[in-house]
Amino acid sequence: MISERIQRMKYLAGDFVMSNIAWLACNCLRYYMGVHSGTYHSLENFLSTRMVVVGQVVFPIIMMAVNYLSGYYNEVFRKSRLHEFFNTLWCSVVNAFLIFFLALINDVVWHRLQNYEMILLLIVAIFTCVYSVRMCITTVTSHRIKHRQWSFKTLIVGRGAAAVAFASKLNSMKNSLGYEIMGFVSIPHENDVKDVQLPCYELDDIERVCEKQGIQELIVVPTRKDSETVLNTINSLFALNLPIKVTPGSMNLLLSQVRISDMVGDPLVDVSRGNMSEGEKNMKRLLDIVVSAIVVLILVPVYAIVALMVKLDSKGPVFYTQERVGYHNKPFKIIKFRTMVCDAEAEGIPQLSREDDPRITRLGVFLRKYRIDELPQFWNVLRGDMSIVGPRPERQFYIDQIIKRVPSYALLRQVRPGITSLGMVKFGYAQNLEEMLERLNYDLLYLENMSMLNDFKIMVYTVKIVLTGRGM
Fold first, then answer.
1. Which fold has domain 152-270?
2. What is the pTM of this model?
3. Which among 407, 374, 367, 365 is positioned nearest to 393, based on CA atoms?
């Protein structure tokens, strides 16, 4: 099986080469349309000018950046032909207008119509060049997957009758979906089928098995149809950082919150990627990095002043770190300005803050009211631990209690937790488990309706809350 990295390099190399050819073709068209023919004696003379040579380096890079932001390179094996066509067309239109307004708008033309013709020719040239290579790579890839020349090492999570029947159905299909079933994993409290032909493992051993056998995908096929079994199982799989798919019949509740990944044969619901398109995910991450970097740089004086005030206000360190659980169940250290006295949890039992909490320092009351204590978390965003907008990150102690009451909390592990969230702007800080569960409803609602527009709305509401001092 070819590696994902090599396959991605094929698309990247193909796009880069064809973007260069497309830009070269555009310059030839510019010359023969008479834009520069009166200035330069020959096409060779025109193409060797500094302006054109620099453009030959810069514009293919710009085109590749647009392609990346579109999410085209996120999934490199199971591409939809229709999505690939429209993705390439959309990127071609965006790149054509970028090139026109950055480099060609000052070209001297006899008629305005020539500008429109140039934009159209740019779109056609870029689309034709790039799509031709993409289509070839995707066609070859699809053919090899269907004919079982390429496959993905897959574990079926489930060992009941439904799981065994599903594996048998996958293996008997005329056109393969690319799953090479390497074994079954028992789900607790289910009746396992005896004497199956493939290796069988316990759920507790799945991390070791995945690492040893190079497992690439997981398919959850429970026999029991209750949501608690499915969600608790899924929650234990997120830390593996592998695609996790379930059959729609296993849990219709998930269909409104996650993407259907395979339309041929039995559709599979991917519960590990969230509800955003790949392009939106890339743009969200880019926005996180850019905004966080700007905030950190601009607020350096504020950080210094607050750090000094914290140090003078009470004994102890300036910053407070605490382990939280983030994307795909991975723990990370969240960073805040310290707002409580040292050893606030001296007994070792996690405690939520409450109104008039004696552990909160005098300065801490002010910092919490205006959310200033959260500012160091922009460093968590830069590190990739968090996003600016996302579900509230919690400690494992509380997650264990929440999942017992609301198993669907496991779905929040599809995305990075955030500095702010819909739950934080609509509900605020929680003082006990019941309030955490109430706030959870907003986070699940956010997950189902994730979009760049909603993220922007949440950021606007957060700024309003900060300015009005409604942080507590």
1. Rossmann fold (3.40.50)
2. 0.84
3. 374
